[in-house]
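pinning this so it doesn't scroll away 📌
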Amino acid sequence: MWALVINPVSGQGKGAQLGTYVAGYLNSRQIAYEIIIGRNCIDQGDLLQAFIDKHPNCNGVIAVGGDGLLHLVLQKITPAQIPLAMIPAGTGNDFVRTLGWSLTQVDELLEKVLSTAPRAIDLGLVDGEWFGAILSTGFDSIVNEKANTMSWPKGPMKYNVAIAIELGRFAPRHYEITLDDRTLSTEAMLIAVSNGRSYGGGMLVCPQADVCDGLFDVMVLHPVSKIEFIKVFPRVFKGTHISHPAVEIVRSKKVSITSNAVAYADGERIGQLPVMAQCIPGALSTWMP
């Protein structure tokens, strides 16, 4: 028995379309499953928990949606040690990118899920919440705060508009960053604690991050001018920003961050700093190409 968890409104309706496709795929192969669609995220989480309580030895969860659905599902399945297959139907889909799947490989992903055993990968745990890709604070969190209040534009462009709005009034902040072997006391524009490689729909903020090495890649963007930021920012989509002298990347199993700022993980609001994150090796079973 599988749980098919669908967010029908993700990706401006792509979740409903792909969810229907996945259900048909499972039906055609006579695979037993139960569809889980909630009235809201709280209801969806409760329904998934009820399924897990009823089927503690189920085959796994197939989630159709974006990184928001991923974040919700991780909170339920990780403690229960239930495997996850993530079908990309959101606007970012950065967890699926991190696993190495292209966003069009739905049939290949489903075939692998139904024919092979999953493998263990790392997850981040921040103040009791699991995350798959990236925990961040600084300019991008402020942009997230702004984007969450905007009804226009839809999709990834909302993030770009929010960047344009917030950049003019943004100022670097002071951070205390405690790592396994040292403490950094520094001004910074952005800090990304990366289990996965990308966020924001393919921004390779830590292109060398590995979900199987038991460590976070921690990227610190030290202060640069607004003009320099605008020049460097496009390089993040190819990961070439890491050669810039203002970019520092270190590796650590545990990371604590203190500042007057907020943090986000997998695009979901974690809350006000301070936060403490730990990389948990082998916390999740999933499928990779």
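📌 and the second one:
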Amino acid sequence: MSADLHCHTRASDGSDTADEVVRMAKLRGLSAVAVTDHDTFAGVNEAVRSGEKYGIRVIAGAEISSVDAATGRKAHVLCYACENPGSLEDLCRTTCEARRRAGEAMLEKVLALYPLSADMVLRRAQGSVSLYKQHIMHALIDAGYANEIFGTVFHELFSPKGGKAYVRVEYPEVHDVIERIHRAGGLAVLAHPGEYDSYTLLGSLAASGLIDGVEVWHPRNREGDESVFLQVAREHGLLMTGGTDFHGMYTKIPRPVGTCTTPDRQLELLCAKAGGKTGNES
């Protein structure tokens, strides 16, 4: 048995409810699942209740967006077992509001290009704390203007390099985010370092003792990434996690819950470091 410690729900940019994600994890025979929506804990309570209902351990979490000031590149930090998530509310709200403003600006640009109603997009964003590009693309697919979420239309509209509807979102600095997570009593794990070329950042955070863990197992790892992350984790005594980064239909390549996982031994180390305060204990 193993655990999928990186799953998104409709509370952010996933297409499935927290209940559906937890039930899928149970049906896959996993020992645990973590709900880690972007910049919100909004899906956690539903997930924990579902875990109690289906008999599977749920790890409470969130994936906090940030930027590495040294490089200007994005960096995502998984927050697990936060003792006081309310103390991160301002941080999460600021990011979600910035993302919603950017999303509304992008939607306005898209509506100038396609005969689409705003209501059609907003209905697909119901339940989310923000408006995401995926919600816009979902409406475009349903209206017949695209046939996939992350295809040619997405690139033409939302590429950071000249996308017709792209609007940048400002994120907090990664060191500040990690400090805030620790002050809130949470564990900070650097998510998918390979995706944002965060190898130097990982090494620096690990050597300075500023990070609790690294996401070693991830479906978008490049060749050799796993070995690099394992070496850093072992050298600095970091927790090692893994997860599908599940988003349901809002993904390039279909990846069911449980496709990429954390070994049970690492799950137990995470729970021990969190003092058992990880969510439910079904």
